[in-house]
Design a protein that fits this description.
600 residues, alpha/beta, 5-stranded parallel beta sheet, 3-stranded antiparallel beta sheet, 14 strands, flat, RNA-binding
RNA sequence: GCCCCCGUAGCUCAGUUGGACAGAGCAGCGGUUUCCUAAACCGCGUGCCGCAGGUUCGAUUCCUGCCGGGGGUACCA
C-alpha cells in the first residue's frame, strides 16, 4: 500500500515540531523515535470517535524520553506544528489530553475520495500488494455421495469471497475445489449399496438416497461390527482397482457432482479447478517412496507412519495396517503436487477447525521432507501452507452429522430463504417486475451474509430466524441500501458530474459517509490479512449505516433533508456522494459474493 | 492427561500492532412517512468486559494460574 499522504505530511510536520520543542533531547537521540517521521507514521492510530480527527498520535509513552508530561507535550508540539510549515497544509493538528489529533481538510478529502471512486469505478480499492504472487485457495471441498449441507456452507462462502478479495489486491487468485471423493467412506457406500441399494432409482435425488444408505450403514454398524470390516475391504478393493467397485464409485461421483454444480450455480460460486482426492491416487506411491528415501518413514502397529518428532503431534499415517491410504497421505501428496503446479505464494485450506491437528501434521511432514531433502530454504514451501480454520456451524443444540442423519440440506435453506424473500417483496414492493430473480438474490444474499457476519473463528449457531432475517445487520439490509442508492440515481436521471462542489458536503452525516468510503480499501486489506471476509462485510454495514442516516437526516423544521432538491449545486454534490456510495457497496457486495439488486 | 479455539448488554456479536467515556444488531417500549424504496431512521442500556494475580503512565486487549463451554487427541474425513 502506498503511504497515506495525509499521514505522511502529519508525520513530517510533527517530527519537525518535536525537534523544535525538545532540541536538547533531539541532540542526544538523533533521528530516533518521535524525531523520525517514519516512527510517527507507524504509531498513528485511529480515534474511537471520528469527531476527534482522522488519525492521532498518543504521546504518553514519550513522557520519559522528553522529560515532560503528556498533555504538555501534546500542547507544545501542536503549537509548534502550526507555525512550522503547517500553514496552507491540509492537515490540522490539535492537542487533546495526551493525544495529538489530526484533522484532514474536509472538503479536500471529500473531493479526492469521491473523485477516486467516480473515475475508478469498481476498481476503487484495487491494490498491487499481490503483484506477481499466486494465492491458491482451496474451499468447499464437499464429499461425494454426501449431502451438500449447511456444514459446507461456510467453507464455500468464505473461500469464494477470499479468492475475490485476494484478486482485488492484485494476486493471481486460484480457486480450487478439492472434492472428498476417496477414502474408507466409499467402502461403506459400496457395501451399503450392494446390500440395500440395488433397486433404487438414482435418476432423481440421487444424493439424498445415497445418504440414506450411508446413515443406515452407520446405524447397523453399531450392532454389527462385521460391516466395518467389509467396508474397509471394499475400499481396499477400490484402491486396488477392482472393476465393480470402481464402477460404483464412478457412478456415485458423477451423480454427486451433477447435484453440487446445481447448488454452486445458484449461489454464484465458481472455481478455477475442480479436482479431488482420487486424482492423487497415482502419486501417492511416489510420495511415500520419497519420504522413505529421506528416511522419514517407519512402521508402527502395522501401519506406515511419519514420526513428526513432536510430543504434541501424533504421527502422520501414510498407510493403514491393511495397506490402504488415508486422507493425510493424500493431503501431503497434494501439497507437493500443488506446489509443483502453481509455485504459490500461499496456499490456503479453508477447512473447519476440527481438522487443525491434521493440517499441522501435514504441514510439519512437508517441512520435514524439505529439510531432509536439503531443499534450499528460499525454495521451500511448507511455510506457505496455511489452514484458514473456522468454527462449527451448529444446528440447534446438536452438531450436524451426516453419519447420524442430522442434516440440513443447503438447497432447502436456499428455497426457504427465497420463498420468504418473495413474500417480503409482495408485501413491500408489489409492483416489482422481476420478482423471482430478485427474491433469489435476496434470499441467497441473506444466507451468504450470515456466514460472514462474525469472525471466522467463532462457532455459529444456525438459527433459521437469523439466517432468514432481512433486517438489521444482514445481507438484505446492504442490498436494500444499494437499491435505494440506485433509485436515487434513477430519479436524478442525469449523469453524475465530477466537478461537484465538495464544500457542500461539510455536514456531519456527509463526513461520516466520506470517511467510510475512504476507509474501504483498508477494510479489504484487513480482510486479506486476517483471511476473513468479515472485515469487508462489517465495513459494508458501517457504510450503509452512515449513508442511511445521511439519507434520512432531518432539517431543523423536522423535514427530511432531501438529497434531490431544487438547489442544483447542492443536488449535484450530494448525488456525486450517492454515486460513490453505490459504487462501493456494489463492489463490497461483489467481494462477498452477494448480488446487488437495483430494485427490490 | 495434553493441544487448539472461545468466554464482552436478555440473545447474537464488534471492539486484536495496549490508549481518550466499552459499541452495534436482535428482542422490548416510544417516535418518524402528504411517500427522493419505512427491508429504513430517531430515542430509551451503569454491562463484576468469566475469576484472581502480574507487566505498564494506561489492560476488554499482553503474561501466568484457575473456572466454564466447544473441538482435537494414529489406522473416518
Amino acid at each position: 500500500m502506498a503511504k497515506d499522504k495525509y499521514k505522511a505530511q502529519f508525520a513530517h510536520t510533527v517530527a519537525q515540531a518535536f525537534q523544535h520543542v525538545y532540541p536538547g533531547v533531539h541532540e542526544e537521540a538523533g533521528d530516533q523515535q518521535v524525531f523520525n517521521p517514519d516512527f510517527i507514521y507507524d504509531n498513528l492510530e485511529k480515534p474511537k470517535d471520528p469527531k476527534m480527527g482522522r488519525f492521532a498520535l498518543p504521546v504518553f509513552r514519550f513522557g520519559k524520553l522528553l522529560g515532560d508530561n503528556p498533555p504538555s507535550i501534546a500542547n507544545k508540539v501542536a503549537g509548534a506544528s502550526q507555525g512550522n510549515g503547517a500553514k496552507g497544509d491540509l492537515v490540522r493538528i490539535e492537542a487533546a489530553g495526551g493525544f495529538l489529533n489530526a484533522r484532514v481538510d474536509e472538503s479536500t478529502l471529500a473531493r479526492e475520495t469521491i473523485n477516486d471512486i467516480l473515475t475508478g469505478g469498481n476498481r476503487y480499492g484495487d491494490a498491487d500488494l499481490g503483484a506477481g504472487k499466486t494465492e491458491l485457495v482451496e474451499y468447499s471441498s464437499v464429499n461425494i455421495a454426501k449431502p451438500f449441507g449447511i456444514g459446507h456452507l461456510r467453507t464455500t462462502i468464505l473461500g469464494n469471497s477470499l479468492k475475490k478479495i485476494f484478486a482485488k489486491l492484485g494476486y493471481t487468485a486460484v480457486g480450487m475445489n478439492y472434492l472428498g471423493d476417496w477414502g474408507t467412506q466409499f467402502g461403506k457406500m459400496i457395501v451399503a449399496y450392494r446390500m440395500w441399494g440395488q433397486e433404487l432409482d438414482l435418476s432423481e435425488n440421487a444424493v439424498e438416497k445415497l445418504v440414506k444408505l450411508y446413515v443406515r450403514f452407520h446405524k447397523e454398524a453399531e450392532t454389527n461390527e462385521a460391516l466395518n470390516d467389509q467396508a474397509r475391504k471394499a475400499f481396499k478393493d477400490l484402491e486396488d482397482g477392482e472393476p465393480s467397485a470402481v464402477a460404483l464409485w464412478q457412478q456415485f461421483k458423477d451423480l454427486s457432482i451433477a447435484e453440487f454444480m446445481r447448488v454452486y450455480k445458484r449461489l454464484g460460486i465458481e472455481f478455477d479447478l475442480i479436482t479431488g482426492e482420487a486424482a492423487l491416487n497415482d502419486k501417492m506411491d511416489g510420495m511415500i517412496e520419497r519420504l522413505r528415501r529421506a528416511g522419514l518413514v517407519s512402521e508402527s502397529q502395522g501401519a506406515l507412519i511419519v514420526d513428526l518428532q513432536d510430543p504434541q503431534l501424533p504421527p502422520l499415517l501414510l498407510k493403514k495396517a491393511d495397506g490402504a491410504t488415508l486422507y493425510s497421505t493424500r493431503d501431503l501428496t497434494g501439497a507437493f503436487w500443488r506446489w509443483e503446479k502453481w509455485r504459490f505464494s500461499e496456499c490456503l485450506y479453508v477447512v473447519a477447525t476440527q481438522q487443525a491437528d491434521h493440517f499441522r501434521q501435514v504441514f510439519r511432514a512437508a517441512a520435514m521432507l524439505e529439510e531432509a531433502e536439503g531443499v534450499p530454504p528460499a525454495e521451500r514451501f511448507a511455510h506457505r501452507l496455511n489452514h484458514v480454520d473456522f468454527g462449527w456451524v451448529r444446528f440447534g443444540d446438536e452438531k450436524l452429522s451426516t453419519r447420524a442423519g442430522n442434516i440440513v440440506f443447503l438447497e432447502d435453506v436456499i428455497y426457504k430463504a427465497m420463498a420468504l424473500a418473495r413474500e417480503k417483496i409482495k408485501e413491500k414492493n408489489p409492483n416489482l417486475a422481476a420478482i423471482d430473480a430478485t427474491a433469489e438474490m435476496i434470499g441467497i444474499g441473506a444466507v451468504m451474509y450470515s456466514q460472514m457476519s462474525v469472525r471466522r473463528q467463532k462457532d455459529v449457531a444456525f438459527h433459521w430466524d437469523e439466517v432468514l432475517s432481512f433486517e438489521g445487520e444482514t445481507g438484505p439490509y446492504l442490498q436494500y441500501t444499494h437499491a435505494r442508492l440506485c433509485s436515487l440515481l434513477r430519479n436524478y436521471g442525469k449523469d453524475v458530474s465530477p466537478s461537484f462542489d465538495a464544500a457542500l458536503l461539510a455536514g456531519e452525516e456527509e463526513q461520516r459517509v466520506i470517511e467510510a468510503l475512504t476507509d474501504f480499501p483498508e477494510a479489504i486489506v484487513d480482510a486479506a490479512r486476517n483471511y476473513d471476509p468479515f472485515y469487508v462485510a462489517s465495513h459494508m454495514i458501517k457504510l450503509a449505516g452512515v449513508f442511511n442516516r445521511f439519507y434520512q437526516r432531518k432539517t431543523e423544521e423536522g423535514r427530511i433533508d432531501k438529497i434531490i432538491s431544487d438547489d442544483p449545486a447542492l443536488t449535484e454534490a450530494r448525488i456525486a456522494l450517492v454515486r460513490a456510495v453505490q459504487v462501493v457497496i456494489n463492489e463490497g457486495l461483489r467481494l462477498l459474493g452477494i448480488q446487488a439488486p437495483e430494485e427490490m
